[in-house]
């Protein structure tokens, strides 16, 4: 059984994990408190229950108030939030787990209701024409404010400050959420970034903001503890529309990371929807990008145990991250190991407050003993 690729320990550079099963970042909207901090008896338990993963990547956590776009998401920019996260890292480390925090800025995927009526920030004043889930329910997104140079400089500082807080809170590393149509992705994509300054126009310019953030974050946490997430073929979701420069932009970024940086990992997603009819899209992300990146590559998106083992065995990825399976299977590693049945997740409680659908999914043994 120890032959299974997903269950083998992972050792590359100074990145050592006890298996290759990664818990993907998932917003669960349980920080239903004024401080937007992880809560004792809730977040610490949730992540501790899943600590046998080789690596846990937390839910997206905002780097500032400006970065918020969803209700009850935790932050990592205040002392109180940092203290809340400490309980989480301690709980995971108690079980010998490894945990990175995902640093998040939603950019234009937000609503003035989150910002005292101010407009959300974005590279350009272009409405994503999406929905924002506000405290009063779904609302249409608006035309955001095009970020000034000062806004950009402040946001870079916010990421650095958040990374510093992550170190203080005891995280093993940070993942920059440069994926899924949020702020960095909005800079990368020509349909959301029409800037004419050094942050827009060419591929290199559209990638500049990401690398400036990375270079600042590197000052407070070693590169070997920084990951970055990308969803190159995201199209028709989260306000993203691909064009002929989209894939070349991700190729530029990933090759630059390969040549000039030594990150903990890059974390790629296979397309979220059918892109077979999109001429600019790449359908097999791991296969396409693997030859461009020598470091650790995590692949995500619709994997199960069999396809996860296969993608590692055929050399397209080093690690596989699982999202929804981790909602309902806290002991996913043990279930894989023993070929135990997997429990189904309940979408209705993905984002609801409290313990239900959050920390009440049983481990396999408990399920057995109930029967
Ligand atoms: C409830 C839920 C919340 C999510 N929140 C985030 C998030 O905060 N950050 C992120 O990068 N991806 C987020 N995702 C995407 C997942 O990380 C993952 O890419 C997606 O679920 C596909 O993987 P899967 O097929 O293994 O579930 C979320 C997905 C779900 C289902």
From TrEMBL:
Residues 6-339 form the NADH:flavin oxidoreductase/NADH oxidase N-terminal domain. Pfam families: Oxidored_FMN. It comes from the Bacteria. Gene3D superfamilies: Aldolase class I (3.20.20.70). This is Alkene reductase. It comes from Maribacter flavus.
């Amino acid at each position: 059984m120890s032959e299974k690729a997903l269950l083998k320990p992972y050792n590359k550079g100074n990145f050592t994990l006890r298996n290759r099963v990664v818990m993907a970042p998932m917003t669960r909207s349980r920080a239903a408190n004024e401080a937007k901090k992880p809560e004792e008896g809730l977040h610490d338990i949730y992540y501790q229950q899943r600590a046998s993963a080789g690596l846990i990547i937390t839910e997206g956590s905002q780097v500032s108030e400006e970065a918020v776009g969803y209700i009850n998401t935790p932050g990592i920019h205040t002392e109180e939030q940092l203290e809340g996260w400490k309980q989480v890292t301690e709980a995971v480390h108690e079980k010998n787990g490894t945990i990175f925090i995902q640093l998040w800025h939603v950019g234009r995927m937000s609503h003035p209701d989150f910002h005292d009526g101010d407009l959300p920030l974005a590279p350009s004043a272009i409405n994503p024409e999406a929905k924002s889930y506000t405290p009063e329910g779904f609302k249409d997104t608006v035309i955001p404010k095009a970020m000034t140079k000062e806004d950009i400089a402040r946001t870079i500082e916010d990421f650095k400050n958040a990374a510093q807080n992550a170190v203080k809170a005891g995280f093993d590393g940070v993942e920059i959420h440069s994926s899924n149509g949020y702020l960095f992705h909005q800079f990368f994509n020509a349909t959301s970034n029409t800037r004419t300054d050094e942050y827009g126009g060419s591929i290199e310019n559209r990638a500049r903001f990401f690398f400036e953030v990375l270079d600042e974050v590197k000052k407070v946490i070693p590169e070997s503890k920084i990951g970055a997430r990308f969803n190159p073929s995201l199209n028709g979701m989260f306000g993203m529309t691909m064009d002929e420069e989209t894939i070349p932009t991700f190729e530029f970024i990933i090759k630059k990371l390969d040549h000039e940086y030594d990150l903990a990992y890059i974390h790629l997603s296979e397309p979220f929807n059918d892109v077979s009819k999109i001429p600019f899209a790449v359908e097999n992300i791991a296969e396409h990008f693997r030859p461009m990146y020598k470091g650790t590559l995590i692949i995500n998106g619709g994997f199960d145990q069999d396809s996860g083992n296969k993608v590692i065995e055929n050399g397209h990825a080093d690690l596989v991250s699982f999202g929804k399976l981790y909602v309902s299977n806290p002991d996913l590693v043990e279930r894989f190991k023993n070929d135990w049945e997997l429990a189904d997740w309940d979408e209705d409680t993905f984002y609801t407050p409290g313990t239900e659908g959050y920390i009440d999914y049983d481990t396999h043994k408990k399920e057995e003993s109930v029967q």
